[in-house]
Amino acid sequence: MSDIAHENEGIVRRTIDARQFEALFNNAIIGIVLTNQAGEIMLMNQFAENQFGYTRDELVGKSVELLIPHKFRGKHEGHRQHFYHHPQTRMMGAGRDLHALRKDGSEFPAEISLSHYELEGKNYVITFVVDITLRKRGEQLLLRQNEELEKIVNDRSCMLQEAFLALEKSDAELNIAYEKEKKLGEIKSRFVSMASHEFRIPLSIILSSISLVKRYSGTEEIHNRERHISKIQKAVKNLNYILEDFLSLGKLEEGVAVANPESLDKKTLLANIDELLLELNQASGKNQQIELSHSLKNDLFTVDRKLLRNILANLVSNAIKYSPEKSVITIHCSDESGDLQIAVLDKGIGISEEEQEHLFERFFRANNVAGIEGTGLGLYIVRRYLNLIGGRITLDSKLNEGTMITIFIPQPLRLPSIKF
Fold first, then answer.
1. What is the pLDDT of residues 128-170, one digit of tens each?
2. CB 261 within 8 A of CB 411
3. CATH assignment of 257-419, given 3.30.565.10, 1.10.443.10, 3.30.710.10, 3.30.479.30?
4. 3-state class of 22 per DSSP?
5. Domain 3-131, architecture per CATH
6. What pairs with residue 122 in β-bridges?
């Protein structure tokens, strides 16, 4: 083949290659932009024109920064110059978000790759631009779905945790309720046992005394009748004390006890206490001497008269009950440290040190009082009454030597009535 034929064949081949390259360039489904080393746009394919909304003629010869959002242009120019001095084929935007700018001013997320070549001593850069708007939407949708799923999972976890805590609380409440029910059952059992015993004794005395009174019908037997009538009266009073204890306990346990403070002058306060002591001493029949003394300095006190009477009745009754006949019981009133203090001192049987810590418990009775009537409620009720008015009680006792119990009532109490 002649040289001319070879040359023509080469021209044809180059023409075909150029057309194929042009077809490849123009029909690529990716934006392609060619720039020179000055950053000027030399060429762009049809897809890039559609991406950016420009015609080729509008961009050729213009700076590539025209396609970069304004907020990134300053940095981009520096990056571009660095790339021209140190060209290498690389993916751009890995691990970061890149955006391109359309002619209408709108932006779109893009994935950008760079390649380069040299022609006649000049460097050129080929930029491949992919619009990843749909991918970003998908990623955002997936992110939102993950966040919603995470929220649902967290909500479910919180609900499960709350349900678990509620179950734990319910279980704890059931255990508490069970323990209370168990304790209440024990209290009821002890109450029935104690009540049956305490009521049986005075009732037996009443029945037997009534039977004997009927026999002593003659005038010469009046002394015997009076003796048994006195026994009946004493038994009835004992029953009344027991019932008072039970009624007081019921009110305290139900939380319906009410404190009603009132102002009393010193003379009236002491007169009320003295009246109660006389009544209790006459009922005892043990010929004991009860002495009332005081070192009160104030002239006015606030007390709940009925509450104070119940408290002192319990304390003095115990002193009478657990002290020998013809012994001396002392009640002393003072108002030191801002409190109304009332001490009840006896020389009775006392209580052992190891049993003193249980003395204010319901139905507790010391070992050395087994043969003496009592409910085991008196001191428990006294302490509960004092709690109503913010008072307190102390005890000092020695076995076979006696006991001193002191109550402290704050002064003044709040007015008007206090409900608890």
1. 999 999 888 888 888 888 888 888 888 888 888 887 788 788 7
2. no
3. 3.30.565.10
4. helix
5. 2-Layer Sandwich (3.30)
6. 119
